[in-house]
Structure formats: C-alpha cells, structure tokens
Amino acid sequence: MTAPDPRPAIDAVWRIESAALIAGLTRMVRDVSLAEDFAQDALVAALEQWPTSGIPENPGAWLMATAKRRAIDALRRNRKQVELGDRPEPAAPAPDEPEEGEIGDNMLRLIFMTCHPALAPESRAALTLRLVGGLTTDEIARAFLVPEPTIAQRIVRAKKTLTEERVPFEVPRGAELAARLGSVLEVVYLVFNEGYSATAGGDWTRPALCEDAMRLGRILAELAPREPEAQGLVALMEIQASRLAARVGPTGEPILLLDQNRSRWDPLLIRRGLAALERAERLGSRGPYTLQAAIAACHARATTAAETDWPRIVALYGELAVRMPSPVVELNRAVAVSMASGPAAALELVDRLVDEPSLRGYHLLPTVRADFLKKLGRLDEARVEFERAASLTRNVRERDLLLSRAEACGPP
C-alpha cells in the first residue's frame, strides 16, 4: 500500500507558519531577503526529513530552530566569503531577548518594514502578501489581476530596495506612523481577505490568517486611536470574521452569505465590530474601510437574509464608488442592486464590466453574471458562465461549488 503524499500537509504547515518564521528571522538577521532564504532552507529540510520522520508535534518551532541554525552557521562563516550577491554585509544576529508588549510584535514590525515609503505602493502590497500572507507570486497576481511576471518583478525589486536602504525592522512613531498607516491598513486587509476567501488550495477559508490580521488591526487602532480608518478596518474585519464558522459546511464546502445559518455568526465579534464602527463614524468622514464596515453591518443587523436593508447597501456602495472608484466595487454594487431592484437591472450594470481589462481573469465577474442569468431563466448562458468562473478560480472548494451550480442549470 502506497504511503500518503506528505507534501500537502507540509504545504499547509508552511502557509500557517511561514509569516511568523520570516518575521522572527528578519528580527534576527535584519535583512528580509536573507530571512526568506533561511526560511526556505528550513522548508527544504522539512521536505527532506518529514516524509520519513513525520511532521513534528510543533512544526513551527522545528522550522524556526532549523532556520536559526542555518542563519547562525552562515553568519558565523567568514562573511567576506559568503555569497550574498550585491547585498551589503549582514549585521550580526540580534540578541534573542524577549519582546516587550504588543508593539514589539515581530509580525507588525515586518508589515511596517514591507510597507516602507521607499517601496512603490503596489510593491508594498505584493511583498507583504508574499511574506505575511504566504502567497505564491501566481496567487498574488490573481489577487491583483495583473500578470505573474509583473508581481515577481515587484517582489524582487522591493526586497532589493529594503536591503539597499537598510530599512529598519521597527514600528515607527509619531508623524512617521501617521504617514505610513494607510498603506499598512491596506495590506492588513489584504491579508485578512486571503484568510476570508483563500485564493488557492483546498480550503475555502484560512481562519488563522484572519486572526493574525485582526490582531494586527487592533494593535494599529490602539497606536492611532484618532484615525477613523484604523477603527473602520477593525470594524470591517470583526464583522466579516463573525461569519467564518457559517461560511463552511461540515465537510468544508462553501456556504454563500444568503444561505448561511446566522445563529452560527459570532455575536461577540459582531458587537465588537459595531462598536468599532461607531467609533470610526464619530471620528470623522467615512472612508473606504468605514463604508465597507457599514455595509457589513447591514448584514450583521439582519436576523434573516430577507430582513437585509438592500437599498441602504446600494446607497453605501454608491458612496464607496465615489471614495474608491473600482470595477470590483461596481461589481459588488451590482449584486446589491440585484437584491434591491431585481436581476435585470443588475445584469445591465455587470454587462458594462465585461470588457474591463482588469477583470479579464477575475472569476467573480462570470460568477455574478451567471447568478443573474440563472435568476432570469437564461439557464444555458448561466451554465456557460458558471463553468467559465470555475475554470478561472484556483480554490478547489470554490471550483467544486461553481461546477455544481453549473450542473444545476441543466445539461448542455
């Protein structure tokens, strides 16, 4: 009998542990490229040893210990003979003293490092998703709707810039914190979204990634208590995370919003999220995160799907489209319009997006269009769109759901 392939389990461990591993190593070697190299060395060691020895009881600690040994061995050798390309000579490993308080969190330091102003905005997000989210370049490319080589180039350039500029591994203070907060909030939400709807793999959600993002968001809100968008982001993540348990069925299959058992929504997270939304709205005008939190709150306040205030959601999406113009926002607005005014009006909105270049490989465009076509009784067209959406997603659970929805439209 053939033994099961351990690589999927190792891949799952890596997705869970890689961010903390790279953050801890960056604190140690003060170079994010070197940290990623040593983390990859530990992964290679795991791939070589775990199939025989089995996955250790604490795989994260095993990976960290292995990576630290590799780092210390490399840095102890004659530095002038170590092959580091055009990188400057690395600093000595930082002492492994205990961290003080949440602000000393290695993950938060890593995010501020990868969101440094020395990097272009698009490079900040790509690098952070790679290092903090554990995504591959292909997955990041799909998330940003751009070609994979473009993402690969951004990541390479970003790491090189961090090394050349000797960007510190720290959380900034005062005016510098305020100046960099916006890009950090953006990336934290990108990490949360990857946990809420995994780009690829066999799991529909990655709750641990959502937890990491929420923890970081709460820290940021404490660091900047007068910044409405920091509070708005916390509100948005808390309310969305309240649905996580209801988003998957007993075998891990996806359950869409309108079909969810709302008794499984977490009331504590909803209360926390609504409180954060109230704080955000008291602090000033509603920015994109606060508006999205207000939309999420409409769902959270409805005890049943039928009680959802769809006209208000349409209005909020209209306000969001003004503050943050985006084809994806327009696609989401169309979904709300379909619920408030019917699928025919919504299909007209979606058809205007069909030729949008940035949505060409975006699986949710044909998904939404298929849903409207099905509601209008145009089943043959709906089936084709569901099948097209299934071909575009990299998430196994989502693909299965889309194919089942295509099958429900009847035979070709």
Question: Would you write up a description of this structure?
Answer:
The chain is mostly helical and 412 residues long. The protein has a domain at 180-198 and 206-301. The chain is 66% helix and 1% strand. The chain is built from 18 helices and two strands. It has helices at residues 7-29, 32-53, 59-76, 106-114, 121-131, 137-144, 148-164, 174-196, 207-223, 228-241, 267-283, 288-301, 310-323, 327-341, 343-351, 364-375, 379-392, 396-408, and strands at 200-201, 394-395. It has a two-stranded parallel sheet. Helix 11 (267-283) packs across helix 12 (288-301). 42% of the residues are buried. Residues 95-104 have low confidence and may be disordered.
Summarize the structure.
About 65% of the residues lie in helices and about 0% in strands. It contains 18 helices and two strands. By secondary structure, it is an all-alpha fold.
Keywords:
412 residues; mainly alpha; 18 helices; 66% helix
Structure summary, number of beta strands? 2
- Percent range of helical residues: 55-70%
- Termini separation comes to 40 Å
Q: Cα-atom Rg, whole angstroms? A: 23 Å
Instruction: Count helical runs.
Output: 18
Q: What is the average per-residue confidence, as pLDDT, rounded to a whole number?
A: 88
Q: Give the SSE string.
A: HHHHHHHHEHHHHHHHHHEH
Tell me the strand percentage band.
under 5%
Structural class: mainly alpha
The 3D shape can be described as globular
Uncertain segments are 95-104
Order of strands, widest sheet: 1-2
**Main β-sheet: number of strands, strand sense, barrel status?**
2 strands, parallel
